[in-house]
Design goal:
globular; mainly beta; 27-stranded mixed beta sheet
Length: 660
């Protein structure tokens, strides 16, 4: 950060060139544009209007528009443990760590310790658009994109207006309040925003499993963010961001409280001149706590009282003006994460011991990517080399009086991984594009996977300090067809294989362990449709995938990875009969999946229906109505050790919005 501050100060004080005949400089707050051949890869885009129109108004709900994007659990962030909110794509399964690289303005959002994504830290009102890049091979984005990349861009004054705000209440008494101001200041702008969600929540425990100790999924979360963008030299802008969030929940039993909090800071210089460049640095601080109760005695069995972790990193990319129909990008990025968990173990509800586990992971990546435009044909190819380090791993335990029992330190490990991406796009006709690509990529095991054993009672999942990196290889081909104005149809076939995939493998009815499965192999088809018919907008997506674990000689060989449905689909419609008035509906279906690696604990398929409506009231105020799961479908989100959790029931929201 000091380097960027010094550089930006020097640029700001440099003599200004003669700009009498120069076009006006527009400070956008946006990143550099995509390479011309970005469409060689399958990309799904969700704009701010659509984010606003999803039934819950939450980021995870908006991402549900893209069939095949799945969280580890089927519940949203109001009723799921925040350490389990990891995304994956293309039926590659998951174990709470995100197999998808999630970025906000180029900065990784994964928790440094868990690898999950703190969804309550992502205010939907702050997002201008979301691009879901299907398939592995992260290239210039950073490592970790085994299943794909979710790339989010912040909104500025032009997208959100000077003043915005919304306040709603639902039929259970839950409330959500958000507000923001985004004034232009000098050659730039500032955005200050915040959101507060709270409520008694709903029953995640089915009626037949409730006991005196059962509790609704109470929740309270908040986030605050300050973002500033300013011109520091002709064609160069400085983007800075400070943010903080907190998330507290009660899950299943009275006293089973879980919380996560964090603070973020980043600086980014974007140069849009002949030599384009993108340089950023960032820092993340996180903490987590969770008290686990026995499902038979309802007494504490484990208290993860403190999990401090940090993530720091940076990136620099340069795009030289090579010309001749080419765009070249060269760069390097670095990410270092460190985290430790302090826990208290209990016997009959009384603290009986203490232990600590954790360590550090590093990744240094060097990449290059070139794109050529040759008439109707566009080609791209790139390579990336990652030097990874797993270091300072440890497990320590003490008696109640802090006398040492174990002090285990694991050997440091390091190495290099190479990966590539390549693709082609052919504009076959004015209405038809043909595309194909191939890629590889890698993901390090998280500190959580390596060192943290946890219990979702009665099932305990053990850590594994010997886990190795996941590595994906895949290819795909697709067609984009625009038969008439306002209509686009896409179809993509893919074949992805993740070697050494990390999964929770069942040992007994109450014990699992994280293991490197030799491979998870997924083949499938994705289809999408978008149509704009006057005042009516339609959208839909579908994914069918055949995904299997390959582990010769193991009892799970040939079975479906945990949490992986074969079929998922999403459809939505929005009618805007006049300015300020929109009526929308959303349909979602997810097929049957299994909680465990042996396919003994099914998660039945479910279909949900939601709605959205807004219309002007008076002045700048509008009425907002939202409906979630209006058919009141039972969505099983967890099936573990004979107990299940269920997702959001029928929920109706009403409130007002203001915008200037």
């Amino acid at each position: 950060m000091p380097v960027l501050l010094i550089l930006s100060a020097a640029l700001a004080n440099a003599p200004a060139p003669d700009t009498a005949d120069a076009p006006p400089i527009v400070v956008t707050g946006q990143p550099l544009g995509d390479l011309p051949t970005a469409s060689a890869y399958e990309v799904s885009t969700i704009d701010a209007a659509r984010i606003e129109q999803v039934p819950s108004g939450r980021i995870e709900d908006a991402l549900g528009d893209v069939a095949g994007v799945q969280l580890y659990r089927r519940s949203d962030s109001r009723a799921s443990n925040p350490s389990a909110d990891g995304f994956t794509l293309r039926g590659l399964g998951g174990n709470a760590a995100s197999r998808t690289l999630v970025l906000l303005d180029g900065i990784p959002q994964a928790d440094p310790f868990f690898g999950s994504v703190p969804l309550t830290a992502l205010n939907p009102g702050d997002i201008a658009d979301i691009r879901v890049i299907h398939g592995g091979g992260s290239g210039a984005f950073g490592s970790g994109a085994v299943a794909g990349t979710i790339d989010m861009t912040s909104a500025g004054p032009d997208q959100r207006g000077l003043v915005s705000g919304e306040s709603l209440v639902d039929n259970r008494g839950d409330t959500t309040v958000s507000a923001g101001v985004a004034p232009h200041l000098g050659d730039g702008f500032v955005v200050v925003s915040g959101r507060w969600d709270r409520g008694p929540g709903f029953w995640t425990t089915p009626v037949n499993e409730r006991v005196a100790a059962s509790a609704k999924a109470r929740y309270e979360s908040w986030d605050l963010a300050l973002r500033a963008v300013t011109q520091v030299a002709p064609d160069i802008e400085l983007q800075s961001r400070l943010a903080a969030f907190g998330d507290d929940q009660t899950l299943r039993f009275v006293g089973a409280n879980t919380g996560m909090s964090g603070e973020d800071a980043s600086l980014r210089l974007v140069g849009r001149g002949a030599w384009q460049f993108d340089a950023l640095v960032y820092g993340q601080v996180r903490n987590f706590n969770s008290l686990t109760l026995s499902s038979t005695t309802y007494l504490p069995v484990d208290n993860q009282r403190d999990t401090p972790s940090t993530g720091v990193g940076g990136k620099i990319e340069v795009r030289p003006p090579v010309g001749h129909g080419q765009v070249l990008r060269l760069g390097a990025d670095l990410r270092d994460v460190t985290g430790y968990e302090d826990e208290d173990s209990y016997t009959k509800g009384v603290i009986s011991g203490h232990h600590r586990e954790g360590g550090s992971n590093d990744d240094l990546g060097i990449y290059g990517e070139d794109a050529w435009t040759l008439g109707a044909l566009q080609l791209t190819a790139g390579a990336r080399a990652d030097h990874w380090v797993i270091r300072d791993g440890q497990y320590q335990s003490w008696t109640l009086g802090w006398s040492p029992i174990l002090d285990t330190h694991y050997a440091d490990r390091s190495g290099w991984n190479g990966s590539f991406r390549g693709g082609a796009l052919l504009h076959a006709t004015g209405a038809l594009d043909l595309r194909g690509s191939a890629y590889s990529g890698m993901r390090q095991p998280t500190l959580n996977e390596l060192y943290r054993t946890y219990t979702v009672f009665p099932v305990t999942t053990a850590a594994n300090p010997n886990l190795v990196n996941e590595q994906v290889r895949g290819f795909e081909g697709g067609v984009d067809w625009r038969p008439v104005k306002g209509l686009k149809l896409t179809v993509t076939g893919f074949d992805n294989k993740v070697d050494h995939a990390i999964a929770n493998i069942t040992l007994t009815a109450t014990t699992q362990v994280r293991e490197n499965v030799p491979a998870i192999h997924a083949r499938g088809v994705e289809a999408g449709a978008q149509a704009q018919l006057g005042t009516l907008a339609l959208g839909g997506s579908l994914e069918w995938v055949h995904s299997r674990m390959e582990a010769p000689g193991q009892n799970f060989d040939g079975l479906v990875p945990p949490q992986t449905p074969r079929l998922s689909l999403s459809a939505n419609a929005a009618w805007t009969p006049r300015a300020g008035t929109t009526l929308g509906v959303t349909l979602r279906h997810v097929g049957t999946a299994y909680e465990d690696s042996l396919e003994t604990a099914p998660l039945p398929g479910a279909t949900t229906f939601g709605a959205y409506a807004t219309t002007p009231l008076v002045g700048r105020f509008s009425l907002v109505l939202r409906g979630e799961n209006l058919g009141n479908a039972t969505v099983v989100t967890r099936n573990s050790g004979g107990t299940i959790d269920i997702g959001t029931p029928r929920t109706v929201w009403a409130g007002v919005r203001v915008g200037l």
